[in-house]
Amino acid sequence: MKVLVTGTAGFIGSHVAMRLLERGDQVVGFDNLSDYYDVTLKQARLARFIDHPNYTHIQADLADRQAIDAAFATHKPQRVINLAAQAGVRYAAENPHVYVSSNVTGFLHILEGCRHHGVEHLVFASTSSVYGANTKMPFSEHQSAEHPLTLYAATKKANEQMAHSYAHLYDIPCTGLRFFTVYGPWGRPDMALFLFTKAILAGEPIRVFNHGKHKRSFTYVDDIVEGVIRTLDKVPGKDSGWDGNAPDPASSGVAPYRIYNIGNEQPVELLRYIEVLEQCLGRRTRTEMLPLQAGDVPDTEADVSDLIAAVDYRPNVSVEEGVTKFVRWYHDYYRTAAA
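Predicted structure:
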């Protein structure tokens, strides 16, 4: 089938595009190649598949309504995977308007494209950050998530609610995926694993927030991609057991709509994550221990029982295996000397 994938120069989007092409789908890629981080890395991701005969690339911004309209009208995708967004939790403090433009206005343009061009299924990226002030572990899609702690999380929560309204009004099947701390080859330079690796190889100390005591459901990128593809193939319907007197936020009785967590069920303490990285690099590091950053949550733990039940899949790559693969890629891409 023909799939419009936004964010194909991005970390997760580039992996998803390649996987779709490998299984024989046609992919229309959409990305603005923003300079939020190293554009040459984004170009290198694209270079892996941009010449594939089943790939078409559009360089434009989600906030450009005409560009989105033209993409839908010209290419007529059957399904859409929206992974483009202004990323970075803390960047929002200095650049809030960029987040709303990309993550809210841009998402509205995607919904309008789906509405007017008969798209069969929209899969979109949400985030574990929507759980915000929640402390009951593991995080479940069936819990209320009404207290986001960052603007980034708030925009993603808005995406979920916008998608539900369009699913209800226009019968557009929508599935939101709450990603939990994704890492792996071709990752983002502003994320912890990248920052730690660069610092350790340079012999510099690393900054460790919350004194390294917080835990995360670190999720390897291939595990995320598998979940994205499987949910793309499972078009949601209305939940016949849904009760408006006790509404379940994970599904809907009035719209073809579903929310899934996608993350590793085994959370790992940050200090262990760093220990694994040191082992893979063959080097020890100095740490600068700092308090928890504003907007960060102490722990995340994913309940993925619904994802397992729906598509028979759970993320399962261990941090030992995943970090090893990342380090191998990092040495290769940056031509650094392995220890």
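Summary: DSSP finds ten helices and 13 strands in the chain.
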